[in-house]
Amino acid sequence: MQVATFCRMDHELVVTRRGSRSGLPITVAVHSTARGPAAGGCRIKQYPHWRDGVTDALRLSAAMTGKTTIAGLPLGGGKTVVAVPPGHVFDRRDLLLDIGDTIAFLDGRYATGPDVGTGPDDMAVIAERTTHVFCRPQSAGGSGDSSLHTAIGVVAALRAVCEQRFGTADLSGRSFAILGLGRVGAHVLRLLATEKAHLVAADVDDTRRDLAVRHGAAWTSPQDCLNAGVDVLVPAALGGLLTAATVPGLRCAAIAGPANNQLDEPATARLLHERGILWAPDVVVSAGGLIHATAVELLHETPEQVTARLHDIGTTLTRILQRAAAAATTPATVVDQLLAGDSI
């Protein structure tokens, strides 16, 4: 197997290879194994150029190190990204086997799970080539779809945000705009509907409208959802949503959601702070699925231990928000301090 390996930025290792079956460029970025083997999802997505996929893998794997660290997991951060050329048609099984071969090459340094463009069934195929995989279907001995557990963690985070911003963790009667109704966003929608919250929802896929209406949410366009006058905006799609251009148009009091890398750059956290919008760092909010899957499949913890870890998302976020408020700084700054070695 021909593999190009190189170190870049503060990453331990980045591997990019052309799949022998699929011919597609596969990148695995290992950001850190200081706390334990790296873990992170497998993303299959269209990119204008394969180098854009490498850039995404670098960014996402670094975020995974933050996520595992803040969650208290004995794991590091990594990511797999397959850059599919626009309009390219490929054999999915061939690609998944190629991904498995690439991960097997790292010999336990990194394990993968689902991400954008992949799911539990795909992990079962990857597992034909490597044991370093999680979130396989339960029928295949895995922990199954992690999206519900991610959503459970999001709701725990929303309680913490509402308590900090509004003085109560009660979600009933609060208004939420859910931007993105994929697997995780759909679960968040259902859970918040159960809490009798007022909901606005949007997705680029208009077929999701029925799901939103069925759970009592007002359907709107993604742009109007982003700028909705609600208590909490819940970004549940792709990242890079919060920018110097979009922040001035926001009409929410707080932001907390499962989308990864919501800020286009660190300075945007300060823009939100200056506008009085409380932003909950996504490395904390979105950790539920990762916590559940890795705790079950990689760490072999008991159900009680896993449940405690999921509930700790809200506890951890509360401490971060309180510390930020006491120091009159941003939650993002507190997260940076924790990643630099501070105790919470």
What does this structure look like?
- The chain has 344 residues and is an alpha/beta fold.
- The protein has twelve helices and twelve strands.
- The strands form two sheets. Strands 1-2-3-5-4-6 form a six-stranded mixed β-sheet, with helices on both faces. The chain has a six-stranded parallel β-sheet with strand order 9-8-7-10-11-12, sandwiched between helices.
- The longest helix has 25 residues, at 303-327.
- The mean pLDDT is 94.
Summary keywords:
single chain; 344 residues; alpha/beta; Rossmann fold; 2 domains; six-stranded mixed beta sheet; six-stranded parallel beta sheet; 12 helices; 12 strands; globular
How is this structure best summarized?
Helix content is 41%, strand content 17%.
Largest sheet: spatial strand order: 1-2-3-5-4-6
Q: How many separate domains make up the residues?
A: 2
Oligomer: single chain
What's the CATH class of the largest domain, please?
Answer: Alpha Beta
CATH topology of the largest domain: Rossmann fold
Number of helices: 12
- CATH arch. level architecture of the largest domain: 3-Layer(aba) Sandwich
Give the beta-strand count: 12
Shape: globular
Mind sketching the topology for me?
Layout: E1 4-6, E2 13-18, E3 25-32, E4 38-46, H1 50-70, E5 76-84, H2 92-105, E6 110-114, H3 120-126, H4 147-166, E7 175-179, H5 183-194, E8 198-202, H6 209-214, E9 218-219, H7 222-226, E10 232-235, E11 254-255, H8 267-274, E12 278-279, H9 282-285, H10 288-297, H11 303-327, H12 331-339
Parallel strand pairs: 4-5, 4-6, 7-8, 7-10, 8-9, 10-11, 11-12
Antiparallel strand pairs: 1-2, 2-3, 3-5
